[in-house]
Amino acid sequence: MNTIPGDIEMRAGEADVIPADEFEVPEISQDSRETVGDYTVPDPKMVMRRVNVYYGEKQAIREVSLDMGTNEVLAMIGPSGCGKSTFLRCLNRMNDTIPACRVTGELLLDGENIYGKGVDEVLLRARVGMVFQKPNPFPKSVFENVAYGPRLHGLAKDATELEEIVVTSLKKAALWNEVKDILEQPGTGLSGGQQQRLCIARAISINPEVILMDEPCSALDPISTAKIEELMDELREQYSIGIVTHSMQQAARVSQRTAYFHLGDLIEVGETDQMFTAPRHPLTEAYITGRFG
Ligand code: ADP
Prior knowledge:
Blueprint: H1 14-17, E1 44-55, E2 58-69, E3 73-77, H2 84-90, E4 101-109, E5 112-113, H3 121-127, E6 128-131, H4 142-152, H5 159-172, H6 176-179, H7 192-204, E7 210-214, H8 222-235, E8 240-244, H9 248-254, E9 257-262, E10 265-271, H10 272-277, H11 282-288
Parallel strand pairs: 3-8, 3-9, 6-7, 7-8
Antiparallel strand pairs: 1-2, 1-4, 4-5, 9-10
Helix pairs in contact: 4-5, 4-7, 5-7, 7-8
Bound molecules: adenosine-5'-diphosphate (ADP).
């Protein structure tokens, strides 16, 4: 297996003897923070290069370069606090809403700098939608939750077109059959799993190109989780999806590529199958074999 001389030496089999909570996460040198694996793809939707993120003095993301492919689900995994959400939030400038947060580096959507002068953040967030950990429907009807965005962005020329958008979005979010008779009832009255699919319908309704999901299933039961995971596979045909998840099983199930973060560094990136069967960096291996979390 892979070892980095002078840094970490781990033997396969140690996973059996060291309980996860006793595993001492090794410090790694600057050299071994270099990303292992190819962070580029032939058909990128988004290209990120040498991204650094700071909260005040504290650096949360260090020199991360990563592509998000067209029609792929890219999973971002790693222990809590390693910077996954911070990185995800850079992709639609959600970090701009945090006053102490500063982002440097190059972040491109279809080749255009999303931090460039004159970029309209509202339009950017329409193109790069986001679904959060906790479903957050508006305190409005099911219909209005989905109609709100298209109305705001002037996407429908009349009421019939608006209705079409709402219905299509609910269908794409695999929610239509469950809500078609209760469109006027409050979105907040739906179950947690339904609320999350409503939020996905809301994101879809404004024709995004990329959908970012930050732990979208962590507040959901297994059946709702399975529905959302199935949905992600369908949505991938039309969108690029970036998902942050603490569940390695989920990453393995839903994504084509996986990026492993550790303390602000992108340690390894690669095809999901390869990452989970033959990780190349010792830290990735230690993490995915459950030696720390
Ligand atoms: P993850 O998603 O991997 O759990 P985060 O991106 O939430 O990690 O956090 C990365 C680091 O940035 C952590 O040390 C966290 O404490 C810090 N951080 C996250 N959000 C903020 C914030 N709004 N203000 C200051 N520090 C933050």
